[in-house]
Dirigent protein
Amino acid sequence: MGSSFFPALVLLILITQQIRATTSSSDSNGNGESRTLSFSVFQHEGLNKTGYVMVEGVAGPPVGPTTASFGNIYVGNDPFTTEFDNSSKNVGFAEGEYITTSMDGYRTLYIATYTLQIEQNDSIWNGTISVLGTVNNERNSTLPVVGGTGDFMSVQGYVFSYPVDTKDVQNVVYGVDFHLHWPRECNHAMNHRLPP
């Protein structure tokens, strides 16, 4: 019985070592570093300018710069700029629908696609990034990235959104920080754009 235990133990150790080697191998850029991309933009919203109420809510506060009645559904097409000033360089837009999901009017189900043309890492990145989640209109919020197209194909990560100026219903400004990464299994056209 003791003699059959030793080969089984050696086999178990070899299998364990192989699993460790597989899970710790470097990603597709060949140097073991994560393939990441981070950048920031400013999103400019304006009631009845870039976003419109499509369905009136049933209860809660009146529409304000950061509040709406429970059940309000907005459709928006908000520009992204490189600076706080809405006349700075336009680098894309957010289009989607926003549904007020709390009775106090501050929480919103956010379903959006960001169309972007970003200069980063000596390259121009073109494509879309889709996000889906719940935001608090007056606090920092994190949204998961659920997909992408073009140069953002197969992207994963999150978007961090935070209020910058929420005083004027005609020009609410949010900062939007993108924290993106590609799974190491992705060996498509991204290789020439990602940092070495």
The chain has one domain: 28-192. Residues 28-192 form a domain with the AOC barrel-like fold (CATH 2.40.480.10). Residues 8-29 have pLDDT under 50 and may be disordered.
